[in-house]
Amino acid sequence: MSTLLEMTGVRKRYGGVQALDGADLTAVGGEVHALLGPNGSGKSTLDKTLAGTVVPDSGEIRIDGEAARIGGPRDAHALGVAAVHQQLSIVGDLTVTQNVVLGLEPVRRWGFLDHRAARDRAAAALERFAAAFSGRLPLDRPAGTLGPGEQQIVEVAKALAREPRVLVLDEATASLHKEQVEVLFEVVRELRAAGVLVLFTSHRLDEVFALCDRATVLRNGRTVGTVELAATGEDELVRLMVGDLPHPADLAVAPPPAGAGAAVLEVRGLTTDRLRDVSFTVRGGEVLGLGGLQGQGQSELLLALFGAARITAGEALLDGEPLPLTSPARAARAGIALVPGDRGRQGMFASRPIQENLSLASMHRRALGRFALRASSERRAARTMVDRLQIKLGSPADPVSTLSGGNQQKVVIGKWLLDQPRVVLLDDPTKGVDVGAKEEIYAIVRALADDGAIVVLNSSDNRELAELSDRVLVLFEGAVAEELAAAAVTENRLVSSALRLAPGESL
Amino acid sequence: MNVLREIRLPGVQLSGTATVAMLVAAVVVNSALQPNFWSAYALTSNFATFVPLVAIAVGQTIVVLSGGIDLSLGAQVTLSAVAAVQLLDGRLDRLPLAVAAALGVGLACGALNGLVVALLRLQPIVATFATSFVFSGLALVVLPTPGGSVPIEVTTVYRDAVLGVPVALLAILGLALLWWVLRRHRVLRHVYAVGGDPEAAYASLVPVARTRVLAYVLGGLFAALAALAVLANTGSGDPFVGNELTLASVAAVVLGGTALAGGRGGAGGSILGAIVLALVTNIVFFADVPTTYRQLVNGAVIILALALAGIPALQKRRPAA
């Protein structure tokens, strides 16, 4: 069969992060081609360059041997590419029908909408999935009122309605039930028989083996290789994804100092709408990692401990005292600090001075008579932290937005250190941070633990978890699926542990 | 994961029932205060004053639905009106020319705003505030002091009635019909999609920038229609006539239940909202509020109405525990 799609040397840089660093992909019509790699390896970015939602810095895309210029989703559509992204393109206020035909609405003369044709087209695209809606297609319901799985199906139907030659499915099964996945696979197999190329990205290896013919593996934005899945074992595939990099030997961490005086955080049966019965104990001086696939409840667990989620059951005790899990302000007073993953939105005031950002969370410690602030003590506190964290800056009076990503993140961490927390919750602290700053942040995390703080670290980077954690809880669908203790915390082990958990399977 | 993010404010939006309830209340109070409220003369003259605000509110609705806002709509009304009245010069035979000029000015102003917002990517609230000075300034150049005249035939027909139905009411129904037609067009569907989620719309092949421009152009079209109504109602030109209409149009949109965040609502509610606002002005007048306090009371009543309007939205957004 002749080559349908050829991508060569695709590069894309986001700020300080090289998401794609010369990725290649060659695929033929009539195959289901898996795109694999650990978190942050560039799979989604590669998918997006093909769908036109990301324009690469360099690289070549050929379709049917002809050079293709994809400057936007409309170019991709003209070339026969349709995509289902992790981030759905559903407009919640429009109905299901309106969403399925969005951008390609059937019209009568002068651009007036043909409602009947639109309904027919949406019904035809969704019919296959009727079982997922218990038989009745919600064609006229606002799409925003559907559940996550149903929205995902609407998104798939929307892509199918475009009758693509190349269909990109990026984590399209993430929120589907088993039966819904089966229907989707059936449809994909039909498309394959009709000569369509399906690019399939999934964290679930069992799905990849069940559905795909070949797989291209990415690592750090580069293509590592393409394999025939029928001739490849699971271990071999995991090794390709993780690489044979030597593991840092200095990891033989001594068991945490369980001695007297160390603080103890005990979480019992914590349950929210996205967490199921999470229990664990962690001591001062220990770094507890949270691993697993992304979005399995790690961030929710941190938010819940910080009092920013609604708890339906369970409790958390710090040194035997129940923690108030009702508001971030009360959590902070109880000695808990959260360094959020989305620092731009939740962690800082980008346009305010560095000094002000640093001093904000701990102001109450320096306030005179509860409300007056003295500029000199504010400055001194900020200065201490700038020195301690080696934040590279022009002047503490500059806005935080003038700093690099890594130094911004240090400000977000430093703001809580001034409050001398007993529990530090870190949510993907090095996301989008360059390598040098990463190392410095690692040093800060270690120093925190050495000072006796309890550190809970969520990270999408398995190497980071392996390097920093004394123990790792692997989360799956909101529950603790496995606990890896010191010696077992290796990157290899983490990836395979996260990937081998099929839905419905537990340990 | 996004617990913190979900607490952000959704656009203020109120249900259709609240708008209708306010309209009923305003009509009841007004008819109690205004002698002969239901008489043919009073109805005709009331409706005649409503039309400009109704027209501009429909235009503002379209811009707001697309995720923007147009603070220059009032200035566009002024500029369209003075351009038309200068061309008219009291002559009936020049009416088609003047109408065409008004529409042309509105469309051109809308296109300018759209280009500034969609292509230069300036904040709509700031960009249109700036262009409003350009448009008002031009209006002063065209007609430095109030003046110009509209043929008597036009003003007479405007205050007439057809088979007992005031012409001005027909004009309002015509505006509603125009909205009904637009609503069935692809452009308006794209306006809703872009206002609802611009990134999803972009990924779904909607021409986002073009849709934004068209929303402002449609806003300008309705501003021009408002200008024609102003001329027919007052019979002469005034280079300051549109000043108060801008913020009134935003208030009408909110009272009518369209989310300021975009993507949700419709012009039907805004038309009712515009009538409520106009009735409030009437009520304040007939309640014998001293002239000095009229504006103050008017503003207070509008704030009260907007606050009432916000209550359902407040209840919906109460965050988790």
From TrEMBL, chain A:
<keyword id="KW-0547">Nucleotide-binding</keyword>
<dbReference type="InterPro" id="IPR017871">
    <property type="entry name" value="ABC_transporter-like_CS"/>
</dbReference>
<dbReference type="GO" id="GO:0016887">
    <property type="term" value="F:ATP hydrolysis activity"/>
</dbReference>
<keyword id="KW-0067">ATP-binding</keyword>
<dbReference type="InterPro" id="IPR050107">
    <property type="entry name" value="ABC_carbohydrate_import_ATPase"/>
</dbReference>
<dbReference type="GO" id="GO:0005524">
    <property type="term" value="F:ATP binding"/>
</dbReference>
<keyword id="KW-1003">Cell membrane</keyword>
<keyword id="KW-0813">Transport</keyword>
<keyword id="KW-0472">Membrane</keyword>
<keyword id="KW-0762">Sugar transport</keyword>
<feature type="domain" description="ABC transporter">
    <location>
        <begin position="246"/>
        <end position="502"/>
    </location>
</feature>
<dbReference type="InterPro" id="IPR027417">
    <property type="entry name" value="P-loop_NTPase"/>
</dbReference>
<dbReference type="Pfam" id="PF00005">
    <property type="entry name" value="ABC_tran"/>
</dbReference>
<dbReference type="InterPro" id="IPR003439">
    <property type="entry name" value="ABC_transporter-like_ATP-bd"/>
</dbReference>
<keyword id="KW-1278">Translocase</keyword>
<protein>
    <submittedName>
        <fullName>Ribose transport system ATP-binding protein</fullName>
    </submittedName>
</protein>
<keyword id="KW-0677">Repeat</keyword>
<feature type="domain" description="ABC transporter">
    <location>
        <begin position="5"/>
        <end position="245"/>
    </location>
</feature>
<dbReference type="InterPro" id="IPR003593">
    <property type="entry name" value="AAA+_ATPase"/>
</dbReference>
TrEMBL record, chain B:
<dbReference type="GO" id="GO:0005886">
    <property type="term" value="C:plasma membrane"/>
</dbReference>
<dbReference type="InterPro" id="IPR001851">
    <property type="entry name" value="ABC_transp_permease"/>
</dbReference>
<feature type="transmembrane region" description="Helical">
    <location>
        <begin position="38"/>
        <end position="59"/>
    </location>
</feature>
<dbReference type="GO" id="GO:0022857">
    <property type="term" value="F:transmembrane transporter activity"/>
</dbReference>
<feature type="transmembrane region" description="Helical">
    <location>
        <begin position="71"/>
        <end position="88"/>
    </location>
</feature>
<keyword id="KW-0472">Membrane</keyword>
<feature type="transmembrane region" description="Helical">
    <location>
        <begin position="269"/>
        <end position="287"/>
    </location>
</feature>
<feature type="transmembrane region" description="Helical">
    <location>
        <begin position="12"/>
        <end position="32"/>
    </location>
</feature>
<feature type="transmembrane region" description="Helical">
    <location>
        <begin position="293"/>
        <end position="314"/>
    </location>
</feature>
<feature type="transmembrane region" description="Helical">
    <location>
        <begin position="94"/>
        <end position="118"/>
    </location>
</feature>
<feature type="transmembrane region" description="Helical">
    <location>
        <begin position="163"/>
        <end position="182"/>
    </location>
</feature>
<feature type="transmembrane region" description="Helical">
    <location>
        <begin position="125"/>
        <end position="143"/>
    </location>
</feature>
<feature type="transmembrane region" description="Helical">
    <location>
        <begin position="213"/>
        <end position="233"/>
    </location>
</feature>
<keyword id="KW-1003">Cell membrane</keyword>
<dbReference type="Pfam" id="PF02653">
    <property type="entry name" value="BPD_transp_2"/>
</dbReference>
<protein>
    <submittedName>
        <fullName>Ribose transport system permease protein</fullName>
    </submittedName>
</protein>
<keyword id="KW-1133">Transmembrane helix</keyword>
<feature type="transmembrane region" description="Helical">
    <location>
        <begin position="245"/>
        <end position="262"/>
    </location>
</feature>
<keyword id="KW-0812">Transmembrane</keyword>
